[in-house]
Specification:
Elements: H1 2-19, H2 25-45, H3 65-93, H4 100-127, H5 132-141, H6 145-159, H7 164-187, H8 193-214
Helix pairs in contact: 1-2, 1-7, 1-8, 2-7, 3-4, 3-6, 3-7, 4-5, 4-8
């Protein structure tokens, strides 16, 4: 997600801004900060519960623990869907710095990471006594928001091409929010935090190779 935010989203945002005659840093900065703010607001208004947490986050709710766990992963999938949607919209519009192969590279990278995300939902649910079939379905449903967010983003962007630089950076900011607030703290828990650090490095390298080689 970090590599995708840089190569697939922020750099194209800067290049598009230059093409439009804007200060190169302006759309990227505004969009990036708004993306972080957007995810922060969602965390406050949507009741959810992370896998290792003992207390739920967001407003008080009578939702079941399993439901709030699914909502937590679903929140994280929104910026990923937006990222895929906006990068494809840029490729369709023929903007500089965005190619269809690069868009597919981003989609592939996010698809790869969706496998462990689904497992993060399904495995704890199975350990709580839920059947394998239901646990699998819940894990799959947590990702349904991605194609929805991608489609909405493509429709919006196609109508107003000028906001593409801002939307690219917006998606990057939203994804970085998830990484800094949730993923990095989680991977440093326990006695084997070095494994998580290695995972970050390998994942960054894979996404970078996909984007640079295919983009």
């Amino acid at each position: 997600m970090i590599a995708a935010s840089v190569w697939s989203l922020l750099i194209p945002s800067i290049e598009m801004a230059e093409e439009q005659g804007l200060p190169a840093w302006l759309p990227a900065t505004i969009g990036f900060l708004l993306g972080i703010l957007f995810l922060g607001i969602l965390d406050k208004i949507v009741p959810h519960m992370h896998i290792e947490a003992t207390l739920p986050e967001g407003p008080k709710s009578k939702l079941k623990k399993t439901t709030m766990m699914i909502l937590a992963v679903t929140l994280h999938n929104i910026p990923e869907g937006m990222a895929v949607g906006v990068i494809f919209a840029g490729a369709i519009a023929g903007n500089v710095g965005v190619t269809m192969s690069g868009a597919f590279a981003l989609a592939l990278g996010i698809a790869i990471q969706n496998f462990p995300e689904g497992a993060i939902i399904s495995m704890p649910l199975k350990s709580e006594g839920i059947s394998k079939t239901r646990a699998f379905i819940y894990g799959t449903l947590s990702g349904i928001v991605e194609p929805i967010a991608a489609t909405i983003t493509i429709i919006i962007t196609k109508q107003i091409v000028q906001i593409l630089p801002y939307l690219l950076a917006f998606a990057a900011g939203a994804m970085i929010n998830v990484v800094v607030e949730e993923l990095i703290p989680d991977l440093q828990n326990g006695d084997h935090s070095r494994i998580g650090t290695i995972g970050v490095g390998v994942g960054f390298a894979i996404m970078m190779i996909l984007d640079v080689a295919l983009g």
